[in-house]
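In this supplementary section we document a worked example of the pipeline. Step one takes a protein sequence of length 394 as its only input; no multiple sequence alignment statistics are reported here. Step two produces a three-dimensional model, which step three serialises into structure tokens for compact storage. The input and output of this example are shown verbatim.
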Amino acid sequence: MKTISAAVLSAMMLVAFPSCDKDDDNNDNNNDGSDYRTSPDDYKPQDEAAISKAMIAPKVNTFQNVYYYDVMNYVWDKQFQDFASKVSKFSNNASVAIGTNAQGNTAVSPLSVFMALAMAAESANGDTRQEILDAMGVTYEELNANIRYLCYLCNQVFDRGAANSGGRNRIKCVNSLWVQNGVEVKDEGVAQLTANYFADLFNMDFEGSDVNQIIKSYISNETNGLIKPNLELNPDIFIVLMNVVYLRDIWNEYGENLPLTDTKFDFVNYDRSTLSTYLLKASYRGGKAVDTEKFSKFYTQTNGGLSLTFFVPNDGYTLDDIYTSDVLNDQTPYVTVDTTSDPEVNYRFFTRCLFPEFKASFDDDIKGAIKKMGVNKFFKLSDCDFSNLTDATV
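The serialised model returned by step three reads:
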């Protein structure tokens, strides 16, 4: 088992002329993990000069001269925690909406989808904005007050203890705005994206022969070569709002492999086939578990403090029965101490999770899933109001 857990995803929201419904041939949600011949550690950035030439306004780091604990005091406050809970609920709902009909082991980043929708909501007005906000489960006031803190938290290095990776173990959440030459955008709308969303601003000829390669290289550079999408921008598109999430972490501070079981176990796959395999043993000291009628779940953390939750359907239930928003949002508390067996002694539970090696990927259009969540005007001919960013007809 590799010591590195890496996840990358690119989500795009594309605005086309004369309508918003022009992105059928583009990957809204692209996780092209097919080419791992080059290690992320050995990746060399591509087309840097062309990307730099296209950039007309880099992201604004509003926290550059702010003390870390001043930022975290707000993050720990109830206002942000309430917002974070709503982001978590959206993440669970989006995971179900996107993953329900997916094939095979599916890896999606609902955070990336949330960020792309947030930029779309920031750029929109009227009913278009409200539909997006309703799907996200937040108000515009909540989004405006908290999004830059979420962006800050999603751009961190995970070098802790003995796990010094030289900054390679990290989460990176990169937003960008790409505008067709000649399309007028509003300064106030652009300022919100560059400051609150840490977005880079690019201006390019979308009909040029190099535009797809430059955007592809930008995504590849931000993900150390793990995402290399095959882009073909529709000539009608004149604005691209894009989010890219890159995540790399390790299981423990020394980056050691998780140990394998001494014997093989029969693991039942989603299609009910059985795989005889050795299982990986997660740490039991930091793990927490709970049993419910339909499922069991186990919670632990990576070295960087990221949460991992494993769900297993109980006998008589399938993954389809438990892969629902209700289950993912379930607040059933984990059981760590037995206070009933002996009134005079509290027994602490230590639980270890055994799970197989696995790989997961996703490369598909998520427009249908987003529409099922209530976002329709953004995709509907002449109903898309993007007037907070541009007065061009969309």
